[in-house]
């Protein structure tokens, strides 16, 4: 039942996001929102590596299976989840910054995406029961390492900030394709770049059940917050603004 609900819910949400984005493209005669959705979609190819490093395990029994790589069985609903969450949220970020380019906008969107990530992850883990986080995990709430909600928000937010900044400089269809790698790059920056200290500690067996693991998890949150602050001040706030 969990797989059925997860699949129906995720494909339904992705369909809504796709319809809204297509309407935006037709209304404003632009193609970049669709390319951002594609960028979010292909980011799902990085999920198996995340699963291995962070200890996420998709239950294989009863799973509506898509493919297996890095010894991680990926469910059929994962690609639309990435399209809706990472792609859709990034489009939202760009539009919000176009309307109000300010640090207050950046931080408001960050907390909104964090809240959305935490609620959705806990729902899929504790309510639908389609995956779990294995091994020793810090700051667990309802089966979810809560600090990861802060990291998941970075991909859409930083990706959206970068796209917002470069859009005026992107000319023509060929150049527009350069938007596609942005969100996967932001995903890697947050989960594997800012997370390098935590991941290094997590791979040391003797340290997996210590306070050091919790302190290392905090470096992920702090690193991401500092990155968002840097990108916001560098790429969103104009030099002449207060």
From TrEMBL:
Alphabetical UniProt keywords: Membrane, Transmembrane, Transmembrane helix
Entry's transmembrane regions: 6-26, 33-57, 77-97, 109-131, 143-167, 179-199, 211-232
Name of the protein: Carotenoid biosynthesis protein
């Amino acid at each position: 039942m969990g797989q059925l609900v997860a699949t129906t819910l995720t494909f339904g949400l992705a369909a809504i996001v796709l319809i809204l984005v297509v309407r935006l493209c037709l209304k404003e005669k632009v193609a970049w929102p669709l390319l951002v959705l594609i960028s979010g979609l292909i980011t799902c190819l990085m999920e198996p590596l995340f699963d291995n490093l962070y200890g996420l395990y998709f239950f294989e029994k009863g799973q509506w299976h898509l493919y297996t790589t890095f010894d991680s069985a990926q469910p059929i609903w994962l690609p639309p989840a990435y399209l809706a969450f990472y792609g859709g949220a990034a489009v939202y970020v760009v539009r919000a910054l176009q309307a109000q380019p300010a640090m207050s906008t950046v931080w408001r969107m960050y907390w909104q995406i964090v809240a959305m990530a935490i609620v959705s992850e806990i729902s899929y883990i504790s309510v639908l029961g389609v995956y779990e986080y294995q091994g020793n995990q810090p700051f667990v709430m309802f089966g979810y390492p809560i600090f990861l909600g802060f990291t998941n928000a970075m991909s859409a937010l930083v990706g959206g900030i970068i796209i917002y900044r470069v859009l005026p400089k992107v000319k023509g269809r060929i150049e527009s394709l350069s938007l596609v790698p942005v969100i996967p790059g932001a995903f890697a920056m947050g989960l594997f770049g800012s997370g390098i200290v935590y991941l290094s500690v997590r791979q040391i067996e003797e340290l997996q059940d210590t306070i050091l693991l919790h302190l290392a998890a905090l470096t992920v949150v702090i690193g991401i917050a500092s990155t968002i602050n840097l990108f916001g001040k560098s790429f969103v706030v104009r030099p002449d603004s207060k």
